[in-house]
Automatic annotation (TrEMBL):
One Pfam family linked to the record: NAS
Enzyme category, top tier: transferase
GO biological process: nicotianamine biosynthetic process
InterPro entries assigned: Nicotian_synth, SAM-dependent_MTases_sf
Functional note: Synthesizes nicotianamine, a polyamine which serves as a sensor for the physiological iron status within the plant, and/or might be involved in the transport of iron.
Catalytic activity: 3 S-adenosyl-L-methionine = nicotianamine + 3 S-methyl-5'-thioadenosine + 3 H(+)
MF-aspect GO terms: nicotianamine synthase activity
This protein's name: Nicotianamine synthase
Keywords per UniProt: S-adenosyl-L-methionine, Transferase
């Protein structure tokens, strides 16, 4: 590990010690300051490979991802409650401090989706939508204006807060549905969706994430699109990483790594169009391991400084 990487890891570990000693992760001056420092530390492009760090740092990273997830949930709940107090909540979304990031991420994900989707999706599922379902709202309002969005979250309070945000809007209230359910208990309904989005914090570690992906592979419609959030470089201290090889049962299409303030990488994959009978027996043998190393740089947009796309060739040979 280079000297620069060591300094970065040391700084992240210091911030973890400070964050883990906080009495509460609810939005406050101290919480906001520490998480802002953490994000700014992890944001610049970095060659650090979190899988090669020592066990102590690996454990800190796992705990830090959970703390980030908890803080993010509390932040979203706070702002969802605040926005829900307005007569027209959607007119005030810019009060959320990261709203502009969601606008950028929504445009990015729409552009990626458009490249790989032959038609405008009729129904989209968003798994892990939370109390402030900004991805669904941005996509439904700005990009996919005829699509219906089915938002899944395990927390009934998150769903009731989210529903309050769109209920006064005559259009979105008709096109956005909220389901209180653990996605692992949803099976045949998944066949109805052209696209399934999986939020970054559904499956907080590798094993949980893979269990969810395998479940989606089993029940999604053949040929349907899966979009996932991941992380790259030092940003992997903030969010779980999905490796292309984790997408058993899916054809990996591409991954985009933003280099600006949009933190999450975006992965797109397609459920294999042929019926697969071996899902319960494990899918590892279906995907050639060598495909994970056949990665080449490619950029479909004119955001050269913002996005690096890693594309795996579309057809498995």
């Amino acid at each position: 590990m280079g000297c620069q990487d060591e300094v970065l890891v040391e700084k992240v570990c210091e911030l973890y010690e400070q964050i883990s000693s906080l009495e509460s992760l609810k939005p406050s001056k101290d919480v906001n300051m520490l998480f802002t420092q953490l994000v700014l530390t992890c944001m610049p492009p970095s060659p650090v490979d979190v899988t090669k760090l020592n066990r102590r740092v690996q454990e800190i990273r796992a705990k830090l991802i959970r703390l980030c997830g908890e803080a993010e949930g509390l932040l979203e709940s706070h702002f969802s409650t605040l926005l829900g107090s307005f007569e027209k909540p959607l007119d005030h979304l810019n009060l959320f401090p990261y709203y502009s990031n969601y606008l950028k991420l929504g445009l990015l994900e729409f552009n990626i989706l458009e490249q790989h989707c032959t038609h405008v999706p009729n129904k989209i599922a968003f798994v892990g939508s939370g109390p402030l379902p900004l991805t669904s709202i941005v996509l439904a309002s700005n990009h996919l204006t005829t699509t219906s969005f089915h938002n899944y979250d395990i927390d009934p309070l998150a769903n009731s807060n989210a529903l309050r945000l769109v209920s006064s809007d005559p259009d979105l209230s008709q096109r956005m549905v909220f389901h209180t359910n653990d996605i692992m208990n949803v099976s045949h309904a998944l066949k109805d969706y052209d696209v399934v989005f999986l939020a970054a914090l559904v499956g907080m570690d590798k094993e949980e994430k893979i269990r969810v992906i395998d479940h989606l592979a089993k029940y999604m419609a053949p040929g349907a699109i899966l979009m996932l959030r991941s992380a790259h470089g030092a940003r992997a201290f903030l969010y779980p990483v999905v490796d292309p090889c984790d997408l058993r049962g899916f054809e990996f299409l591409s991954v985009f790594h933003p280099t600006d303030e949009v933190i999450n990488s975006v992965i797109i994959a397609r459920k294999y169009p042929m019926p697969i009978h071996s899902l319960d027996q494990g899918l590892g043998s279906m995907i050639l391991p060598s495909k994970c190393s056949e990665i080449q740089t490619f950029n479909p947009f004119n955001h050269g400084n913002m996005i690096e796309e890693l594309a795996i060739e579309e057809h498995l040979s």
